[in-house]
Amino acid sequence: MVVDRSPFASLTGPCGLTRFSAWWRTPGIELERIAPRHPQQNGGHERIHGDLAREVQRQPAARATEEALRLDRWRVELNL
Q: CA Rg, the chain, in Å?
């Protein structure tokens, strides 16, 4: 039995989609695929993961709700 572990790509789903990735297509979001094990093909996306991880580790909030608010402010500032 094959178990898919990725939320975005499936070995067994129709057109290689998971339920999650199929849901993203519903509002018209286009999916872009990179070669497996080649994160350098998606540098901007990988960069934001690093920036987000550093922000969370820099000064974590005491409660999850506070952290969510802090990250919302960070996201708004990032997208200015």
A: 16
